[in-house]
Amino acid sequence: MTKKLHSIELRVSFGDCDPAGIAFYPNFYSWFDRTFHDWLWTFGGHDALCRRVGAIGMGLMDASARFFRPVKNGDRLTISLAVEEWQSRALKLSYEVRVGEALMATGRETRGLFVQTENGMIAGTLDQIRELTDRNDA
């Protein structure tokens, strides 16, 4: 993982688990998204950032996860986010999910900035978003 930018902590609850008593895998994607949006609150939140740059939203273009150990009811997770790469029209993020020092899962996302034009929705450039986040993360 490159430089960690942001992390959240949460406790896994019974409702997060499947019948085997381990966290149901789609929840990891939800937790990645929650971590991303929590990071955006540092800059006023998703909606405020998008309004500022004239975009509809910062949407998901690709996502993946790898699971190394089962996460169970009651586990206290730390989910960390890092920017892997800023591209002109795509932001590549990585996530680590830990219980204490133990690495439980990793994830990757590619997100884009979506802008409405008269010809439909397009992926906008991320320059303004990068400038805003770099200024506040320094």
Automatic annotation (TrEMBL):
It comes from the Bacteria. InterPro entries: HotDog_dom_sf, Thioestr_dom. Residues 21-100 form the Thioesterase domain. One of its GO terms (molecular function) is thiolester hydrolase activity. SUPFAM superfamilies: Thioesterase/thiol ester dehydrase-isomerase. This is Acyl-CoA thioesterase. It comes from Flavimaribacter sediminis.
